[in-house]
Structures are given as C-alpha cells and as structure tokens.
Amino acid sequence: MPMTSATGNRPLIYGVTLDEIKEWLVQNEDKAFRAQQIFDWLYVKRVSSFDEMSNVSKELRQKLASEFRIDPLKEITRQESSDGTVKFLFQLIDGHAIETVIMRHNYGNSICVTTQVGCRIGCTFCASTLGGLKRNLDAGEIVAQVLAAQRFLDIDQQRASHVVVMGIGEPFENFDNLMAFLSIINDNRGLNIGQRHITVSTSGIIPKIYEFAEKGGQVNLAISLHAPTTELRTQLMPINRGFPLEKLMEACRHYVAKTGRRISFEYGLFGGQNDQPEHAELLADLIGDMLCHVNLIPVNYVPERDYVRTARNDIFTFKNILDSRGINVTIRREHGSDIAAACGQLRAQHAKETAG
C-alpha cells in the first residue's frame, strides 16, 4: 500500500482498497472490521473529512489524518450545458488542472474521468495533448473525480451509474493506477459501479491490450481507431508508428477471443480526411470479421487544431455503408456542444488564461 503519492504528499485514501485499509488497521493495532465502517463513510455517506466519521474513535481518525489525505479536488470552474452535460475543471494538490465530465443518457449518468495530467500520445485532432504530458494521476485522484461528480449528482438524488475512462491521458500508460481505480469503484461495498458499466479507452498500447485481456474482467474495452489504413492512421495518430494498425488488429482479435467480449472502435469523423465512402468500405474490410461495435464521433471543433466537422449527410452515408456490411454501428450523441466539449479544451483554455 503506497504511503506517498505521485506528488510526494500523503496519498489520498481514495486510492486504497478495502483490503488494504484492513491491512493498515491491523498494522496499526486496530480492528480490521473498522475498514468497512471507513469505506462506508467514504463511498456511501461520502464525507469530506475524517472528523465526520462519528462511529470511528478520535484516536483512529487522527491516525488516518496523519497518513492519508481526504481533501477533495478543488473546483476551478464548472460548465453546464443545456443538454445536462456538466464539465468540471479541478485543481490537484500540486496545482495541475484536470477535467471530469458528467454525461446524461437515457440509461443513466456516465462519468468521464481523466487518468493523466496532459498526454504524450500526440493525436493531431485532440486538445488533451497540447502541452504534452506532465504526470500520471494516482488511483486516488482518479477515484476522487467519480466521487466529486457523485456529490454533484447527490444534490438531485441521482446516481453515477456508468464510468468511461476517456478523459485526458492514455489510461494504459498509467496501467497500475488504472487497475486499482477500477477495483475501488467496482467494490459493491462502496460506489458499486458494475464492471460492465465501465469502459476503458486506449489509443492502442498493444502490450497492455494483451494484459487487459487477462486482468480486465468484464470491463469494456474501446479502441481509438479513427482510420482504416495504417498510412492515414499514422497521419492522425503518431502512435501508429510504434504500434502499427496490423499489430493492433491482432491484439484486438486476441482480446475478443480471450474474453468473449465485444470490442468497441471509436471512429472520429474529420471532414475530408477519413469520412468518405471508400474509408467506410476499408473500415468494414478491416474489422468486419470481429465481434465489435463502431461508435462514429462527429468531431468537436478545437481552435488549436485544423479539422472541420463532417457534413450531416456524409455521416449517415458512412454509417449506412457499415450497416450494409453487417457491422454494428452507432453515431455518438453530442454532449455539451454549447460548452468547451472537446476533451482537454477547458484545461487548454485555463492554461492560456493563467499564462496570460
């Protein structure tokens, strides 16, 4: 169990599993059953200080406070869309900023979390990579985002039912903290978010796809694909040089064979770049033999990037071609189109303002 965080400070208690809390209690000559009480205060009652844990002794509360932090993320700003989407910009203890988003669906409230401060993958269409990678988040900093969103939902007695790991950063470059986060939010004695209600998205870190096939359980896997050929994907996503499309498809097929679970492909549509009928046919050729789903994403305009939105008719033409080839395909519903909706965009705006 870590006693320091990525920032060198005391770790957030949200990064500690129930079993690790039990272990810590025993090491500190206390009763292991207290761990369930602490977990209940953290994730069911959702207190914001150890002092609120009224059925925990004062001595134990002091011990907890001396070894762990429970301070919430500091909200820098919040944007609320007319469609119900809520986007938070949070400040971490070291001053870095991250984004978290609540998205409303007919099946529940989905929380999109960030796993890194910045990103080094360098996708040419993404605001998250502007400024590069600063550091990985601790597991507790990722869990804290779900809790912060849930506290906001508590106001209207609503629940976070789904989590998507699709915010700033490449989750598979922060694999150990990602897996700890998944374990903590899935625990049925706490937030109790089912594995099948959690989706992790990767740009294609091939070795970790194989590892996730072994360790990911029933958590859904999504691949940021965005191109049907290796040449075009390299233009859009430089990561394709290190993890080429052909090898990525091998890893995806292994994942499906190993887990029996459907894989999702995220395909952003960029006007005149990857959205023509021939691209749809090539995409169908590439993935048509796989148990999969394609999520078409009309691109959000990012001022720092030079991509334009695909015309509405072209979006449906692309979808219809995939449909005709027997591929399960949907068009992602827009969220927050009237706010800084693109991933990393609010953080980039904040960085400009503070630098200025």
From TrEMBL:
One example GO MF annotation: tRNA (adenine(37)-C2)-methyltransferase activity
InterPro entries: Aldolase_TIM (IPR013785), Methyltransferase_A (IPR040072), RlmN_N (IPR048641), RNA_MTrfase_RlmN (IPR027492), rRNA_lsu_MTrfase_RlmN/Cfr (IPR004383), rSAM (IPR007197), rSAM_sf (IPR058240)
Positions of [4Fe-4S] cluster binding: C119, C123, C126
EC class (word): transferase
Cofactor(s) of this protein: [4Fe-4S] cluster
Domain Radical SAM core positions: 105-338
GO cellular component, one term: cytoplasm
Tree of life domain: Bacteria
A family per Pfam: Radical_SAM
Listed EC numbers: 2.1.1.192
Keyword NAD: no
A Gene Ontology BP annotation from the UniProt entry: rRNA base methylation
Binding-site residues for S-adenosyl-L-methionine, renumbered to this chain: G169, E170, S201, S224, L225, H226, N300
SUPFAM superfamilies in UniProt: Radical SAM enzymes
Function recorded in the entry: Specifically methylates position 2 of adenine 2503 in 23S rRNA and position 2 of adenine 37 in tRNAs.
NCBIfam families for this protein: rRNA_mod_RlmN
Xref: PANTHER family: 23S RRNA METHYLTRANSFERASE, RADICAL SAM CORE DOMAIN-CONTAINING PROTEIN
HAMAP family: RNA_methyltr_RlmN (MF_01849)
Protein name in the entry: Probable dual-specificity RNA methyltransferase RlmN
The organism's taxonomic lineage, starting at the top: Bacteria, Bacillati, Bacillota, Bacilli, Bacillales
